[in-house]
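Cross-posted from the bioinformatics board.
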Amino acid sequence: MKTIIEPFRIKSVEPIFFTTKEERKKILATADYNSFRIRANDILIDLLTDSGTSAMSSNQWAGIMQGDESYAGSNSFFKFEDSVRSITNMPYIIPTHQGRAAEKIIFTILGGKGKYFISNTLFDTTRANIEFSGAEGIDCLCEEGKYPTVPAPFKGNMDIEALRKVIKEKGTSNIPMIIITVTNNSGGGQPVSMQNIKDVRKICDEYNIPLFIDACRFAENSYFIKLREQDYAQKSVPEIARELFSYADGCTMSAKKDAFANIGGFLAMKDLDLAIRCRNLLIITEGFTTYGGLAGRDLEAVAIGLQEIMDENYLQYRIRSIEYLTNKLIEAGVPVMQPAGGHAVYLDAKAFLPAIPVEQYPGQSLVCALYEEGGIRAVEIGSLMFGKYDENGKLIPAQMELVRLAIPRRVYTQSHIDYVAEVIIEVFKKRKELKGLTITEETPLLRHFTAKLKPFN
Amino acid sequence: MTTAAHRRKAMQEAGFNTFLLKSEDVYIDLLTDSGTSAMSDQQWAGMMMGDEAYAGSRNFYHLEEVVKDTYGYKYLVPTHQGRGAENIISKILIKKGDIIPGNMYFTTTRLHQELAGGKFEDIIIDEAHDSENEYPFKGNVDLDKLERLINKYGAKRIPYVSIATSVNMAGGQPISIKNLKEIRALTKKHGIRIIHDMTRVAENAHFIQRRERGYEKKSIKQIVKEICSYTDGATMSAKKDALVNIGGFLAINDWDVFEEARNMVVVYEGLHTYGGLAGRDMEAMAIGIKESVSDDHIHARVGQVIYLGEKMIEYGIPIVRPIGGHGIFADAKKFLPHIPQVEYPAQTLAAEVFLDSGVRTMERGVVSAGRKANGKNYFPKLELVRFTIPRRVYTQAHMDVIAESTARVYDRRNKIKGLKMVYEPKYLRFFQARFEQLQ
């Protein structure tokens, strides 16, 4: 069959609410032109994030009913531990309420002033956690990853030469770890090849630096390896995932992505000493070591979701639906990141809105237009999210101005996706009418979550 | 059910620390009332109504409305649990060298204050440290102690007074409205905030209704709201009163503090409209808060605790009096007078109760108290074992089994030997410490 269908049917539905364009104009103004500030009830199709927004399976809901809510030694924890271990093969598994809490713990221990964390690309909360500790984050993304519309199979790869250079420049002792983000979220959900992971491992061995995986989307990355990398076509996704983790000394995970959970995360590692230090901090900010700030039922849901996500029928449908939307947009001439990534479609806002300068946040302008036109909520991944100011208060823009349309897992059907494509194409036709924005209020860290903006005059 | 041999093996593997037992080896779990409640059919229905949107979930707005209506605080920041809120408020309000007076310490609360650079000072009335004193409001603040601190350090070095309702470490003892009003008047005079540790505010309200003149006819809901009205903000672990398995919040009346908290919550917890919680958990919390202030619920809840306490008293077991709201606190110093505090009598007693019947309790004595900044042990006056009753989980028959088992341990108390600590973690040692039995 040519058509790839959703490998599930729908048991329980949740209504969505319709608004008129006039209503949406008002809502946008009330939300200060920041999509994070819009009430969910006022959204028609919510593509703000794929984090925590998945539909759980009937099996996961059954797990929810079986949660053991004991404060210590919960049976659900042991199921969770087994499930994580079966994939990562790491001895020490530490649950956290979500991914950023895992990051917070590890960077509090290993970070601090004068330290550098090197990555293919650090995500916003990861970078914020690193900077909060006083350390700095450095991205060493491969060259082809920097050009959104040029296709290449593994645009999430680390630039090995750049990595070596940075290590030499900063000194081994100032680099507590190297982090590979799979897939590379900020860089367009692009995968990292197994070969690249092996090469980074070699460098880590050479300089004796630990390698951690930011594993949020490990299954999507593993599936891309199966599709695109030589010698992996015959391997199963669980085998590929296990190999991927075998090169790492530890990982952080937001289970809100590739574990189909609405809440949850974990840290896993091989080093007992580090695990003990992590657990000591965990208890202060998260919770006891066998629940880490999660209800027992959520540990169950993560344990089940982690196994479900590696189903190849699911992954085929997942990757195909992103590709489907990407192709529709390419046909209409809309500038999108190519090839399609694993969890989202990324519009290239610089190419989409060449008349709006980066200081006026073209990405955010596009986000607002998509909402106004069709009630779609997207997110800017550009200078609003990553921009900084130099000492004269001038904006240091991000490398790319992207708009991410993240597709929640198992939530929307093909007709929702068709509608999204129509809205984007409609906005593309009217692109010359779009105006820039200016910030009226912002915070020093993670400003994009709460910043207020207004149309530029 | 497990055999005595099985329990002995499990206890040894757990290093004589009940926290390290597996729940499947536990027969009746009284380790904590935190997160262990049974949710209602309404709450489970709410779980199905979760709006898992990352930003602006309708469950958040529902929760916000319920918090405002029930507690009266103006602004809400959800957190994944109570210690998330403690972490944030401590970091915002406390500067290095600050003093935080409070009505008895609580483990995580004091630690967050210390990590933020502050120092906790106990201002609870002396009666609270005497397990036999029948004073009806042993959670009250000694106003002279508070005033002396203000005079000594100056109001500028006291960012807030930390007031717990139903003081946990004193045995779930309530604070009176009269006392709250007096603290409010004194702090107002000096421009000092009151931050309310409100995790068991409804249980405290029950005791006010029963014991304080003028409150006999008022509903729990009215009393709860009045309690909150004397404070400026609160940290809440919704895992207690509010009948949920996960969740908490920071509530505050001051816009500036709220703004700072909203920015900080993103770093530690999650965006301010979910705070590290699934949408469904905020919904369950909103419904649980409404249920928690129902008179029928709270009377049944505290009634069950009192039933167990009275049974223990009948058996002659030394417990903290009057009986508190969320559990029975056995006085280990009196239960095991031959074991000195350095040999951890409460830790020992908790292990012995488990060995007898598989009932899991928690130490609240010298192990929980931990060490001072100078490395010396705190030696608290109260050396207790807490039999915490989860809400709506166990029946009267379970209570009978618990009392009978404790009585059996009491009968053979003279043969019981103390413990020595063989592993001690840096923070909150009671969670992970390991022990061996002394010969």
